[in-house]
Each structure stands twice: as C-alpha cells, then as structure tokens.
Design a protein that fits this description.
577 residues; mainly alpha; Serine Threonine Protein Phosphatase 5, Tetratricopeptide repeat; 77% helix; 0% strand
C-alpha cells in the first residue's frame, strides 16, 4: 500500500525536522510541552508541524476538535497539503457529506493514492453520488486488482443504479483475477437469481457447495432457489434438510423452511418448524412473538390446527412466564378450548408476580365478570386498586359493575373517586355526565341536570352530555330553546350521528316545527345502523303531524316488526285508521 508507506515516512521526516529545528539553538534544552507552534524556518515545516499535531490528537487523544483545529491550521499555510486534506476528511467519517469536499481535494492533489480514493469512493456512495462513486471504484479496481472490497463495492453501485448485469460482469471479472471468493460468489448468486438467470444461479450454488460443504448457507440458498422456482417438493425439502444437517440450529434455514411449508399449505410441517423457532434459545423474543402472531392471525387456520398451536403457546409460556404477551397468547388458547377458569388462574398467578402490570388485573376482572362471579369481580378490582390507586379506569369499571347490580349509590361513590383521579377536565366531564345519567335512571331529574351542568362547565363540548341533557329536557317539557341549542351544538360536533340528529329533530317536533324536523329525522333513520325502533316511531310521528298518514303507518309498522312495544304502536295506528 504505497499511500500508507508515504504517510508513515512523512511522519518520520516531520519528527526529525522538528527535532532539528527545536535543538538548533543551544538555549532550547527541552521539547515543547504544548502544541504552541515553535520557531520554524519555513512554511513547509510549519504545515508539517500542524499536520503531525493533528495526527497525535487523533491517535493518542481521540480529540476530534483538536484534530480539525490543527489540520485547518496546516491548510491555512498550505491549502494543497494532501495528507492534511485526507486526515481532515477522515475526521468526518460519521458525517460524510461534511468530509466529501476535503476527500475530493485530497485526491486532486494526489491522484495516485488509493487510500485517498477509497475514502472518496465511500463518501460519494454514502451521500448518493453513485455515478461519480462508480468512476472512482472503476479506477480503484484497475489500480488495486487484488482488492476484493473494491469489486464488491463497484458491483453494489451498479446494482444500486439498476444495472445488475454490469454488476455480474464485475463479479465475473473478479473471479477470473482472484479465483472464487466466497463473499463475491454469494453476491453474484443473489444477482443471478434476481435477474432470472436461474440455471447460472443454481450452478453457482452447486460450486459453492463443492468448495464450502460445511457452510449451511450454500444449501439454504439452493433450497430457496428450488422453492422460488416451484421445483419438485421432494428436492426442495431434501435440500432444506441438508442445510439443517450441516447446522440444525441455523435460524435462517428454519425461518425459510417454515415460510416454504406455509406457502405450500403444509400446515403441520409449518407448525412443527415454527415450534423449533419458538423453542430456539438464540431467537430473540420479539421475533418469536412476531412469528407466533403471524401463525395465529388467520382464524380458520387457528381452528384447523387448534391443538398444535396451543401446544406451542404452552411451551412458549413455560419459556417466558414473566412476559405478559406470551402469557396472554397461552391464555387466549385456553379460553378457545373452553378453559376460561384456567386462563384466569394463569393471570392470577402472573398478577401475584407482577402486580404492576394493569393489563393482568383487567384480564382477571373481565374473566370473573364473564363467569358472573360478582363477589370475585369486586374482590379483584379492589386488589387492583391497591396496586394502582391512581388508575381511573378501575374506579369506572367498579362503578359500572355496581350500577349493573342496582347499587347506584356505591356506583356514584366510585365515580366520584374516579373524578379525583381524572387527569383532565374533559375526562372529569365524562365521569360527571355518567353520574348524571345514573341519577336520571333513578328518576332524580333535578340531580341529573345538576351533574350535566357540572359536566358542561368542565368541558363545554362533551357531546354525550349535550345530547342527553337536551333530550331529557325536551321529554320533561323543559326549556325547548335551551334544549335545541345544546342539541344543535352536539350535531355540529358529530354531524353524522343518528342519535344526535334524532334528538335535534325531536325537539323541533316538540316545538311544532314539523317541516324542519322531517329531513333531520329522516337523515337519522338513514344513518342509523342499530335498527332503533325509537327513530322509526319518531319519524312516523313527524309524518303524521304533516298529514302524511300512509307513510307514518309504514314507519310505525316497521318499528313494530323490529320489536317496538306493540301497545304503543297500536295506539299510534288508531290515529290513522
């Protein structure tokens, strides 16, 4: 490497010159103790001094700022000093765009130095200057015909520029000059397959197997070639097995083989190989999770291979008993087997070890509720609150469970605790609105409306409260103008909500504004996806008020067919008979 010899030699010359300069006078008996520029006879020595100090800062102190300070000082004296330009470019190895100009200038000053050209080529490639980078590496291939890296990088640049056949030609040229180099052979094989030269790719693979029979990658790539060509399944499988015969624990082989079995619809073989990956001690947990999720994403596939998947999930949970996701995979399988209680017990054990994981507590609470064990629901909710006293969702959950059981006072007590732990006014508004709904269910309209007002004071755009307050105010014959104002705000916020549109139209109906009410409630009926019979009844009432009795009867009868109270419908139909 001529460049390296030159730099080393120049450093020795510099050190000798500095020593001579510093000892030229009898008064100076010590070397300089700092990087202060000594008295030197000419600019050339001053340039070399700063260059040498820059090298020292780089090699001994690893001080990039000091390196650049000295090298820039050298270039201020001699802007064409190639070694300083190169070293300054090298100092920007982690930010090639900043070092690129220095690398170019270094090559301009010493176009025979292959080290300078190598750095320039890397910087050009890193900054996307592929055409210029190719020119540099083409020169390097000629100047260093035995440097494998130059061939590899030049081929990669051709490949990047979508010239794969040129890349193959470069690799062929390297093989003629250097013989078969494993790294280049792998890359050439990949290129051959990519451009559809499968026969040549197969031949390359077989040559590599002959020369490197103990490298599983050679068998693996041949197996993948057969797989991608849809060759005979027996041949493909045999080649995969040869790869595993060389290294039975090779993760790339297992992954590729699993994917091939999956594509071929060989479900049992796919899951068998998947299990080897899940059990593999060197496969990272995130990848294991990804593979398991992919295997269980299709519900029909899960049903067909239920027992095998659950066995994998069981082993997975044994490996990682403290990972929540893995435990959940196993619990999901247990539930699908009808073993709900076993799944809940699994999470109870997990929650004992990891009480900080709120999801585990929620799983237990939901499971106990599914089994309709109210006392257990309350017990485990209380345990969860002990560990997560600031979690608003737990208070909301327990409040909802109390209200389901008819214990409204206890529900309201928990909702009030939720208010204390609410992080924002908008959340407090939701909880206050929920309390208002509970009081309304109890028939205490006065308290319900007071809580609705509190909710809107906290957050004026609480759309649910706006709608409920407006509707109940309308139903009890209260201030219809106020009710309409709130309803209109709700519809402005959510203009396609059928329930909110119905409330607005119904208030218009109660105000006697039938023509205005008709299109709004019709829109509500059209948008409704729940099949609300209340909406159909309201629309029938509006049509009847407008004298459109035939269509009113149609909608009332639709409501009856959808399950509305028969007596109420009968009373309406009497109006048009």
């Amino acid at each position: 490497m001529a460049g390296i010899k030159w730099v080393t030699k120049s450093v020795l010359v510099v050190m000798m010159a500095l020593m001579a300069a510093c000892t030229a006078t009898r008064e100076a008996t010590h070397y300089p103790t700092s990087t202060q520029l000594p008295a030197l006879p000419n600019d050339s020595l001053r340039t070399i001094f700063h260059y040498t100090e820059g090298l020292k800062a780089s090699l001994l102190m690893r001080d990039t700022a000091e390196v650049r300070r000295h090298l820039r000082a050298a270039l201020a004296i001699d802007s064409l000093h190639a070694p300083s330009l190169y070293e300054l470019a090298q100092s920007y190895i982690n930010s090639p765009a900043e070092g690129l100009d220095y690398a170019r200038r270094a090559v301009e000053q010493d176009s025979t130095n292959v080290i300078y050209k190598g750095l320039l080529g890397r910087y050009l490639a890193s900054t996307g200057e592929y055409t210029e980078a190719m020119r540099v590496y083409e020169q390097l291939v000629k100047e260093e015909p035995r440097n494998v890296l130059n061939y590899r990088l030049l081929a990669a640049l051709y490949d990047q520029e979508r010239l794969p056949f040129s890349a193959i030609a470069i690799l062929d040229s390297a093989e003629l000059k250097l013989g078969r180099v494993e790294e280049l052979a792998y890359y050439k094989r990949e290129l051959l397959w990519r451009v559809g030269l499968f026969e040549r790719g197969e031949a390359e693979s077989k040559k590599l197997i002959e020369e490197y029979p103990y490298d599983y990658r050679n068998y693996l790539m041949l197996a993948e070639l057969y797989a991608n060509q849809n060759r005979n399944d027996s041949l493909t499988l045999a080649t995969y097995n040869k790869a595993l015969g060389v290294d039975s624990m090779a993760i790339p082989t297992l992954r590729s083989k699993a994917a091939w079995h999956q594509r071929k619809g060989q479900e049992r073989d796919y899951l068998s190989t998947l299990r080897r990956l899940i059990d593999h001690p060197e496969v990272e947990l995130p990848l294991k999770k990804q593979l398991f999720r992919e295997a269980t994403a299709n519900e029909n596939f899960y049903r067909r291979n239920f027992w095998q998947i659950n066995t994998i999930a069981s082993q997975f949970a044994i490996q990682y008993p403290d990972d929540y996701d893995v435990v959940e995979y196993y619990a999901t399988g247990l539930i699908r087997m009808g073993e709900t209680e076993a799944a809940i017990d699994l999470f109870k054990s997990y929650a004992e070890r990891h009480p900080e994981v709120i999801e585990a507590h929620n799983y237990i609470i939901d499971g106990e509720r599914y089994l309709q064990r109210t006392d257990s629901v309350m017990h485990y909710t209380a345990k969860a609150i002990e560990h997560h006293p600031d979690n608003i969702d737990l208070y909301m959950r327990r409040g909802y469970y109390w209200s389901e059981q008819g214990f409204v006072d206890k529900a309201i007590s928990d909702y009030n605790l939720a208010i204390k732990h609410s992080p924002t006014d908008s959340v407090r508004s939701v909880v206050l609105g929920t309390i208002g709904d509970l009081y309304h269910q109890q028939g205490d309209t006065k308290k319900a409306f007071r809580y609705y007002r509190k909710a809107l004071k906290k957050f004026a755009n609480n759309v649910g409260v706006l709608n409920n307050y407006a509707y109940y105010l309308c139903e009890m014959g209260g201030d219809l103008d106020k009710a309409y104002e709130m309803s209109e705000r709700a519809c402005d916020i959510e203009p396609s909500n059928a329930t909110y549109l119905d409330t607005k139209g119904w208030i218009l109906y109660r105000q006697g504004r039938y023509e205005e009410a008709k299109p709004i409630i019709f829109q509500a009926v059209s948008l409704d996806a729940s099949g609300s019979t209340e909406l159909m009844m309201h629309y029938g009432d509006v049509l009847h008020a407008l004298g459109e009795d035939f269509m009113a009867g149609v909608y009332w009868r639709r409501a009856l067919a959808a399950g509305h109270d028969a007596e109420e419908v009968a009373e309406r139909l009497k109006l048009i008979e």
